[in-house]
Amino acid sequence: MASVLRPGARPAPDGARADLYRRMAPDNLAPLWEVLHSLVPPQPETPCVPALWKYRDIRPFIMASGEVITAKEAIRRVLILENPGLRGQSAITRSMFCGLQLILPGEIAPSHRHTQSALRFIVEGSGAYTAVDGERTTMHPGDFIITPPWTWHDHGNPGNEPVVWMDGLDIHIVRMFDAGFMETFPEEVQPVTRNEGDSSVRYGNNMVPMGPLPASKTSPIFNYPYTRSRETLETLSRNGDPDACHGWKMQFINPLSGALAMPTIGSFIQLLPKGFKSGAYRSTDATVYSIVEGTGKVKIGGQDFAFEPRDTFVVPSWRSVSLESDTECVLFSYSDRPAQLALGLWREMRA
Ligand code: GTQ
Ligand code: FE2
Fold first, then answer.
1. Is the CB of 101 under 6 A from ligand 1?
2. Statement: residue 7 has pLDDT above 80
């Protein structure tokens, strides 16, 4: 593959070598020694670059998308946040998809299911719902909602304001394995078979039914409401000191296994006190952040970005990240951490 050959990394092959490469090419052979340095780098090398999307700047385009196509026609009306180093690849990191989805009052996004896992993090507006396997949950800003693999899901907005959420999907992990399947539900809207809040009381109150329990690797809770996340962070901040790199940071878990909520996507929420300056931190899981509350700055591998609520930024693998808060801040984030942990790949380093 020519794309993994960094120009100038090695001198151009001489006559005898070049001649060999030309002669063996029709037999689909290539010399490892020309690409070994980039195939097996001393530390992570990635085309993914640090970037920040200011919600203030991109919101007009999200709203404009509502004027050129309906949610029904689009199937999912989403503007993809493409990493500037990965343009044309529908990717915010090498493994993760990120998009901002808009659903206007009265609209529906038709029911389907796929093997990709999805998370929704509500950015703006209330009153839309997402339905997963017969249960609807109403969205509020800051809610963290998951769609497990191969579960029927559709969205609707019976309310009276536009609702925008961030979609995080493991599309590029599934694509790497060529393990993607998708089906469309026979009707646009799946029937409601369980009351709202059912999975939350069944699995989210530190009790579980007598069984049999679901066998899925994904959490059976599908809405982790912001009211509870915020209250947890608030109480933690009154009860002890912040971590030097993370402030007060929590991981969303699957109560049946204690593992992260999804097998391929880790999701986190953290509180930074006003005037906090974090230590530098790096990890191999490139991470997408969505700002919920507060303003501050983030330094990503030497580049500075100012952030405010509803902005999105991305930290590539193994780039150091330092956070500085002007006011108290709440940040949601997601990455492929559980996939890397399961494969024995994950590393971190604190400065
Ligand atoms: O809401 O079901 O951004 O299937 C990409 C793929 C959203 C969704 C996306 C999807 C969805
Ligand atoms: Fe979907």
1. yes
2. no
